[in-house]
Fold:
Amino acid sequence: MKMKKAKKCVICNIRKGRRFCIKENDFICSRCCGLIRDTQLCPSDCPYISSLAEKKEVGELPLYKVLMTTQKGSRSILVAREKENGNLQFISALVDEWKMGLKDCFGKHDVSKKEFNKLVARMPQYADAELNECREIIKRGILVAEAIGLKIPKEFRVFKYILGDLDKVEVTGSLYRCFECGKGDLPDDIVEQIKEVTRHDVAAGVCGTEKETMIYFVCDKCKREKEEEVGEVEEVK
Ligand SMILES: [Zn+2]
Ligand SMILES: [Zn+2]
Ligand SMILES: [Zn+2]
Structure:
């Protein structure tokens, strides 16, 4: 009787899956394991996570462009690096900061600058951004998606490496942030309320459409500032 051959990795479906990944609940290859492994996102009992600490810094390619759309609530992030052949590699991620978290991703491993700039021109709302800020928004987006119970887009695992090491990015404070300033924390009961609304909207298939539930929550600081503004207007009268 022949031994059963090792099944293919469930992520890339190319190499043999020899590592059992607790998060995927299936066998994956060592390369994909290395790409998706993350100390904050993987279960702490994963036997492969400890090897991260010893991982040597992989030289990152120089940044070509870091862009983010300016509209609050829904951020499209674009990070491109310049390769030795003069072409670019890039990742584009869409993060719904107010509801679903990281919801869409795509990228290219090798694209000409001309092609890349054509893509950027189609998104007039892009502005230069800080890589660390983008990383934090994306990582928070992952935590949000996981808290809601949404699948992380498969493409994200493929292109995540372009962002560099997400392990060093610390996400602190409440899961969702103030809708107004994007910085202040929101209380636990509000966060739970947002999660509930989001799960409802996702189940109804209305997230991102006109029919979605409209919500807007602000931190204490923004609330106070708004009250003061209203107060001043009344005094003038
Ligand atoms: Zn694989
Ligand atoms: Zn693992
Ligand atoms: Zn605020």
